[in-house]
Design brief:
By secondary structure, the protein is of the alpha+beta class. The protein has a single domain, classed as VC0467-like (3-Layer(aba) Sandwich), CATH 3.40.1740. The chain is built from six helices and ten strands. It is globular and about 50 Å long. The two termini are about 15 Å apart.
């Protein structure tokens, strides 16, 4: 009988983690936050990594998190286990939101929240152009590399449109299938390995 760890060791890709790439959790990762998650890397350098889980919506409204936030009908996502009392956002608005940092072509992280509020108030921003997160996912220096070496994650490319418009309930399966080859069978594994 083949050991699950042997299967995962065989199935690794060689894409390096960098800003704008995604991390796809291996199928048997059971951590509450990261089980079947897709994490967008907003920063990755020698000091560590910062990312946001982009496929875990939570039952919150912006007004539940930020006092006096204008009404805006958009899902809120659980970005990760760190600083879950803080709000983070990614968007496709570019320089319209000052102090934004470009993550990849057409995709930006952060910026001036007051400008975001104003754009919402005057209806100049569409829910497909911005995503909000409570908390973030963080790794200290070399921690993510260690997790990659243990095959906890695969690294993949993603387009801004797929980040902003994908169905979160289907995103993990879709990103795994997009890897092609032998990875596609990962989607057939039960989310609870004891059910195998």
């Amino acid at each position: 009988m083949t050991d699950i760890n042997d299967i995962l060791k065989i199935k690794t890709n060689n894409i390096k983690p960098t800003r704008g790439k995604i991390l796809i959790s291996e199928p048997f990762l059971v951590d509450y936050y990261f089980k079947r998650s897709v994490v967008l890397l907003a920063e990755h350098n020698e000091e560590g990594s910062f990312g946001l889980i982009i496929n875990k919506p939570v039952d919150l409204r912006l007004s539940d998190i930020v006092k006096d936030f204008p009404s805006f009908d958009t899902p809120i996502y659980l970005g990760g286990p760190v600083k879950t009392d803080s709000l983070y956002f990614i968007h496709t608005m570019g320089n319209e939101i000052e102090n934004s940092m470009e993550i990849s072509e057409g995709l930006f992280w952060g910026g001036d929240i007051e400008i975001v509020k104003e754009l919402i108030t005057i209806e100049r921003i569409d829910p497909k152009e911005i995503k909000f997160f409570v908390g973030y996912s963080g790794w200290v220096s070399k921690q993510l590399e260690g997790e990659l070496a243990r095959n906890s994650w695969l690294v993949a490319n993603i387009k801004a449109k797929d980040v902003m418009e994908a169905n979160p309930d289907k995103m993990w399966k879709k990103t795994v299938k997009n890897l092609g080859g032998d990875y596609a069978y990962w989607t057939n594994f039960p989310s609870d390995p004891t059910m195998n």
